[in-house]
Amino acid sequence: MTSKQQTLIVAGASGDLAERLLLPGLASLLERDRDRDGGRRVRLIGTSRHAWEEGAWASLLERASENAGLPKGRLHELLEHDEARTADPAKPEQLRELLDAVEGEPVLYLALPPGATASILDALLEVGPPEDLRIVAEKPFGDSLESARSLNEQILKVAPEERVFRVDHFLGMGPALDVLPLRFGGRALEAIWNAEHIERVEIVDDESIALEGRADFYDKTGALADMHQSHLLQLLGLVAMERPERLDADGLRDAVIAALDAVGYPGDDPAAASRRGRYTAGTSNGRDIPSYADEDGVDASRGTETLAELEVEVRTERWKGVPFVLRSGKGIGSPSRHIDLLLRAPEPLEGLAEVRPGRIRINLGDEGGVRIGVALHGAPDPFAPVAAVAAADPAVSPLLPYGQVLVAALDGDLRLSVRADAAERCWAIIEPVLEAFHSGGVPLQEYPAGSDGFDDSLVVTA
Ligand SMILES: O=P(O)(O)OC[C@H]1O[C@@H](O)[C@H](O)[C@@H](O)[C@@H]1O
């Protein structure tokens, strides 16, 4: 690769996302590519509407390098150029100045909430977007089906779909990338990847962290819109889809949308298919956590959920009658990120001790890998560590998930980006449940932070 020059403008660079995830992701990919044909030629402009304090930009890059596990000066070294600007890209004249500072191909990363993204898109239309502009839009893409539609209309006036990258960093997680080779790269698992052999699928992201000062965003959003609408449904798309005709962007994204289109609620009753909870004071991961209702910036009367569980069906021949359970919560005592495919019990065989039927676990946590529970002699519990383990080679995907989605955007690979129709469809799937939540149709349960979530006896009114 003698790479072309690109200027990455990050709007919202002073936010927590840039420091924790996006810039570390960038550092991880520049580091990976540093010795490949002279490395990538990326210029970075970080913008914020608020004035940058003296030294704030340099120390942001240092913290981002450290968050990527690199020496603190590394990101600065790897970038061809970097600078911070105080600018409001929603103001056309300020946006024009930013675009004038671009050298090479412009990549505009909108690390901002949907309302701010919409204002910048308006400004882009007014100044006339450069023809080679790439737009990267952070999740949540809209905050309802209607706003996702209108964002899509706006964005497609500014750039064609093949230059638009709607980010879902779960799609950049090594283990999520493993789902495709796991299913289609060999015969062992795809042969049983159906309702005949699989009884239930669980897609879980239970986190020990709590609100972490994000009340501004989270209290208006809640677990369901934060996690299920994007991350968990995208994973469901990969697990539930049919074999794509080919694994290019259209092939993959057509297969994902077909799976999402087939999603419905058991008995067409979204309220009965869902549960929600909110943490009370407790201790999680050795830290004292206040009750969600008492966290700074929270309006307790909103009844925002910090834990949500949803059961859906995928109405295809392959998945007939198989519940897909999607759960995510904060302040959970035994955090776990995984996709489990629980196998049906075999026909009993006289003389053979009864064992648990086993499961396929795709571990989405840092350690990754796939664990297949099988019955072995002397190991009646196939969930025990003697079961077969396929560990991914960490050298194969050394990028952080944000590095993976970012490199896809920089290189124009659309496979890790959520297509317009899928972003809308995911809102359409969760909106009936959100309505049930807001109208009080699903009781808000309480769980102490540090516990494992639902306890049906603790029901409070929403
Ligand atoms: O642990 P990661 O990779 O940051 O992903 C989980 C996070 O994903 C984000 O998209 C959500 O807004 C957060 O609430 C969540 O904690």
- Inertia-based shape: globular
CATH topology of the largest domain: Dihydrodipicolinate Reductase, domain 2
Determine the N-to-C terminus distance: 56 Å
In the CATH scheme, the class of the largest domain would be Alpha Beta
Protein name: Glucose-6-phosphate 1-dehydrogenase
Domain Glucose-6-phosphate dehydrogenase NAD-binding: 9-172
Keywords: Carbohydrate metabolism, Glucose metabolism, NADP, Oxidoreductase
Domain Glucose-6-phosphate dehydrogenase C-terminal: 181-455
Write up this protein.
Strands 7, 8, 9, 12, 13, 14, 15, 16, 17, 18 and 19 form an eleven-stranded mixed sheet that branches. Residues about 380-385 and about 455-460 have low confidence and may be disordered. The protein contains twelve helices and 19 strands. It has about 450 residues and is of the alpha/beta class. It folds into two domains: about 5-140, NAD(P)-binding Rossmann-like Domain (Rossmann fold); about 170-400 and about 420-450, Dihydrodipicolinate Reductase, domain 2 (2-Layer Sandwich), CATH 3.30.360. The chain has helices at about 15-30, 55-65, 75-80, 90-100, 115-125, 145-160, 175-185, 185-190, 215-240, 250-260, 400-410, 420-440; strands at about 5-10, 40-50, 80-85, 105-110, 135, 165, 200-205, 265, 275-280, 280-285, 285-290, 305-315, 325-330, 335-345, 360-365, 370, 390, 445-450, 460. The structure holds 6-O-phosphono-beta-D-glucopyranose.
Task: Considering the chains and any ligands shown, give keywords for the structure.
single chain, 462 residues, alpha/beta, Rossmann fold, 11-stranded mixed sheet, 19 strands, 34% helix, binds 6-O-phosphono-beta-D-glucopyranose
